[in-house]
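User: Please fill in residues for this 694-position structure.
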């Protein structure tokens, strides 16, 4: 039987969409001369037909295939000049994945024929590889129409957010309370045992490490490793099947359904879901990388090329290429992807990896870049959380405090300051610097209409030492990554307290425990938006590996059998206190000294009981201090937070006594005890205390 004739189609929406008894295709390419849709059998092994799309119309090739239906497997071939010196890399011998694919079938393996050039050729990346890669290429499958998602969302105020950065697989892979078939999967995250932990802990917003369909880097396969973190997205509309139950992984529709069910279950428990998304680069890498999708469809539109040498790619991501988000069609692609995950998959927001890429223009980073303007005007995305990792590797790449509008931003200065203050590992900081970070880094965020919540405070994240390892190691131990310990951050602020790694020395163990809990208290009591790295609440270790991106094994998985339940209870108590005391999650900037009417205030005191003066802030021989927080228009303070990083207990004279102790991070003092007027309080070594006016 002859293949159906491809009729002219609609030029939008992009991708393959069901309509009018067939499938409409719309593919972007401003520089291709022709694009073909190649139809395959259900297994994606045999090509059945090729159809040349109509167009282009405004840079879009389109076509309508009558009688086609859900489940149609297809790939794309793009024709045009192969002239790398001009930035053009069309090669119709390479089957390309539709960037808008809703479902992806096949399994990707690194093979030489995936490259548009002939590897090993004397002309290098300027040569042309004419081998057909279709038999081994990933392919798109036509998905059912996007289902309407009911608007059942927690819709939590930003001031109430408590972020929990977590890897879908790593959280539950070793969880004894989950059925083995669900461990390490989306369904595992939604299991009652997982939700019970989130609720007990007191976190309310999960920040999931990347779940977009990703592929591993080429250099990992010979090492027997994979990209566990997933920061190598290729399918920006598809959840990664590797994170689904094993029984679902070969059926993209079931993977999608499992992801949606996870979101629904978390929402029913009043827990929001934020996705870590990677719109800064793709797995196609540098000019020496493969031709999988974007490069073969329209290299000049999708990627930032070196202006005076367009055969090469700008590499502000450190991964070989950078998406050209300032291009109108790439801006549209990113927004279309974000809307899909909100409207169809139900998520509540996004954390943008290496986010300066979103605002890079030919003239540098611009807070008024087209993407930010379009995002601000988008009605679907108006109510979701937006979080930036505000740095990349490019020129002027450190942009903390400069993101526009509703963006929250990871604040690495908070991490480094808090670690330095409590660990004192040769990089100690004074009271003034800690106060600045504790009060939401007003030097970076108090401008325009930005609020303290813009500062996402953290002391550990997926990238770097875990909290336990930051107090157990003096240097990184990354040999398992296969790069001779060259990878990962050098000079990370840490302290082993006298022994490298695990030890049974009670003095060392006690010092580590005190430092960990003091840092956790500093994090969860600070103004701003707190983010806890999954596992820090139970004492997770990676054995000193501070770049475990390729460790899909017990190095990265949470070890529930060794859970530190005491720290878990401590973090739960901290977050309960944060919920109970509005001053600890205040949405506005605190005023100092005499506040204007209607504003909360903070005042600072030295251990002697006198209010801190200018010279006190510059003393290097004394680091302990106290903060008193007052409600708007209140005559007396309500809360006092005391910091003592010293190795010995210190007497504090507390003004406006009596006070009642609510929390002692060291565990030496009993909650509920009172401090009488004029009676000094012996504040334990390496501790944070919280007191409420009795």
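Assistant: Residues filled in for all 694 positions:
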């Amino acid at each position: 039987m002859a293949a159906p004739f491809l009729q002219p189609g609609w030029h939008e929406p992009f991708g393959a969409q069901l309509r009018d008894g067939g499938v409409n295709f719309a593919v972007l390419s401003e520089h291709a001369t022709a694009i073909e849709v190649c139809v395959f059998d259900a297994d994606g092994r045999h090509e059945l037909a090729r159809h040349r799309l109509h167009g282009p119309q405004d840079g879009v090739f389109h076509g309508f295939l009558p009688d086609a239906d859900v489940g149609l497997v297809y790939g794309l071939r793009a024709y045009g000049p192969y002239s790398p010196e001009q930035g053009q890399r069309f090669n119709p011998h390479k089957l390309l994945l539709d960037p808008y694919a809703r479902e992806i079938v096949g399994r990707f393996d690194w093979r030489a024929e995936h490259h548009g050039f002939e590897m090993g050729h004397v002309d290098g990346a300027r040569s042309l590889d004419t081998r057909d890669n279709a038999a081994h290429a990933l392919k798109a499958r036509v998905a059912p129409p996007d289902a309407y998602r009911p608007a059942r969302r927690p819709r939590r105020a930003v001031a109430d957010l408590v972020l929990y950065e977590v890897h879908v697989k790593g959280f539950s892979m070793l969880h004894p309370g989950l059925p083995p078939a669900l461990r390490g999967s989306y369904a595992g995250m939604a299991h009652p045992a997982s939700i019970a932990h989130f609720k007990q802990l007191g976190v309310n917003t999960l920040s999931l490490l990347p779940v977009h369909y990703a592929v591993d880097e080429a250099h990992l396969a010979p090492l027997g490793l994979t990209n566990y973190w997933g920061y190598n997205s290729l399918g920006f509309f598809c959840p990664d099947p590797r994170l689904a139950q094993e029984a679902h992984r070969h059926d993209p529709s079931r993977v999608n359904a499992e992801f949606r069910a996870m979101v629904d279950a978390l929402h029913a428990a009043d827990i929001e879901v934020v996705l870590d998304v990677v719109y800064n680069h793709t797995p196609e890498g540098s000019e020496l990388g493969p031709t999988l999708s974007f490069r073969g469809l329209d290299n000049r539109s999708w990627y930032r090329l070196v202006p005076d040498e367009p055969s090469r790619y700008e590499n502000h991501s450190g991964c070989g290429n950078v998406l050209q988000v300032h291009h109108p069609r790439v801006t549209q692609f990113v927004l279309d992807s974000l809307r899909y995950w909100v409207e169809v998959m139900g998520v509540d927001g996004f954390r943008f990896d290496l986010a300066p890429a979103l605002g890079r223009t030919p003239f540098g980073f611009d807070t008024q870049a087209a993407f930010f303007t379009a995002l601000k005007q988008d009605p679907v995305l108006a109510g979701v959380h937006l979080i930036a990792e505000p740095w990349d590797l490019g020129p002027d790449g450190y942009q903390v405090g400069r993101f526009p509008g509703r963006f929250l931003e990871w604040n690495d200065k908070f991490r480094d300051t808090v670690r330095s203050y409590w660990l004192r590992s040769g990089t100690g900081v004074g009271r003034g610097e800690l106060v600045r970070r504790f009060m939401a880094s007003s030097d970076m965020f108090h401008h325009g209409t930005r609020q303290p919540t813009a500062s996402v405070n953290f002391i550990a994240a997926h990238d770097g030492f875990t909290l336990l390892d930051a107090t157990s190691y003096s240097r990184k131990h990354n040999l398992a990554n296969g790069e001779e310990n060259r990878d990962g951050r050098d000079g990370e602020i840490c302290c082993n307290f006298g022994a490298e790694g695990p030890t049974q020395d009670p003095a060392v163990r006690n010092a580590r425990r005190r430092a960990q809990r003091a840092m956790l208290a500093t994090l969860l009591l600070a103004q701003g938006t707190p983010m806890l790295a999954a596992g820090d609440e139970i004492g997770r270790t990676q054995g000193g590996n501070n770049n475990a991106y390729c460790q899909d094994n017990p190095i990265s998985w949470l070890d529930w059998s060794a859970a530190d339940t005491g720290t878990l209870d401590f973090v739960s108590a901290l977050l309960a206190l944060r919920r109970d005391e509005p001053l600890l999650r205040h949405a506005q900037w605190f005023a100092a000294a005499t506040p204007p009417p209607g504003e909360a205030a903070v005042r600072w005191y030295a251990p002697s009981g006198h209010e801190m003066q200018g010279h006190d802030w510059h003393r290097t021989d004394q680091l302990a201090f106290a903060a008193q927080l007052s409600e708007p228009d209140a005559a007396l303070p309500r809360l006092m937070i005391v910091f003592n990083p010293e190795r010995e207990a210190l007497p504090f004279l507390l003004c406006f006594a009596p006070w009642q102790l609510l929390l002692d991070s060291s565990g030496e003092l009993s909650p509920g005890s009172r401090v009488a007027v004029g009676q000094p309080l012996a504040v334990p070594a390496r501790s944070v205390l919280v007191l409420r006016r009795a």
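For context: The longest strand covers residues 22-28.
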